[in-house]
Amino acid sequence: MKTIAIAGTFDTKGDEYGYVKELIESLGLGTFTIHTGVFESTFKPDVSNSEVAEAAGMDIKVLAAKNDRALATEVLSKGMEKLVPELYRQGKFDGMISFGGTGGTSLVTPGMRALPIGVPKVMVSTVASGNTAPYVGTSDIVMMPSVVDVSGLNSISTQIFTNAVFAIAGMVTFENTKVIDKKPLIAATMFGVTTPCITIARKYLEARGYEVLVFHATGIGGQSMEALIEAGFIEGVLDLTTTEWADEIIGGVLNAGPHRLEAAAKNHIPQVVSVGALDMCNFGPYDTIPEKFKGHTFYKHNPTVTLMRTTVEENEAIGKKLVEKLNLAKEKTVLMLPLKGISGIDVEGEAFYGVEEDAMLFDTLRNGINRNVVEIIEMDYAINDLEFAEAAAQKLIDLMNT
Q: Where is the signal peptide (predicted)?
């Protein structure tokens, strides 16, 4: 029998979770309950809150006595992060569902994120229509808006709960029986202005027996790729679009954090890296751009996205950061430089064409890279030219087969 874990605050939302538990069981599925509240559950759970707290090194009675909501959330969420994957490894459940507001969502999603990709996970939340990145991270949690607060059983909440239950019931019940040939997995990074390059490279690699996962370099895309590399899924990396570093250093909205461009080097995964779209930093609508950037060159990509051309000074800082990350490598790392343009709008005649800016980026890389571990290949093409894209793809194949 397939089993669904139900995790939540059974002390304050016992009726709601009781309804969900009965509904799941009426479908012929098992339930496995995990109590994440501070106080006593309204029904006997399979995993108590004391066990969750203990996993984080805290006594639940001591935690309750402190009467500190923030501390309780921190402790119990850490306990969930440690306990949930272990319970899954023990075969206690096949998928997980939870319901809550900001607190309930913060309590359970760390545990969900710790589960392997592909394990069904549904979080019905009052904050599902906002910025879900803090809750989802690089996982495959399905966030479903609760519409009304998770407080009581009414005509709206019961319909939402029912839809969520039916969704996860389908996920755990129906398995993908379509057989897909196992091929070496390659991770590639792409942005709108490097799409032609990655499309050419992807087709080139697929024609030679590789499977290519393309990640949109919008912050979470880069983080997701790094996470999959760390998890051991990826056998080769075609990281031609490193634009997230421009946002990280300058202060744009699509940064991927300080650990971008580390996983392949640390895990000895062959990688071909380039400087795609480092000519730009990303902001929202034009009127949201900070005043300190007045005087930069801007390009309105669409009504909600404004691109800002990186300056000579900024490209020096970006180049130094790439040098730092690439020099972490011990082997099988290649840096490819497209000398005639690093994005679709950084070519002669386009809005961000910048000879001096690109020259500073290239020179900083040339002067800083450890040539003993990182090979630099310079090509007299733009990044979206077929010759550059296919050369990058072939170079990665060569690295993976040596």
A: none
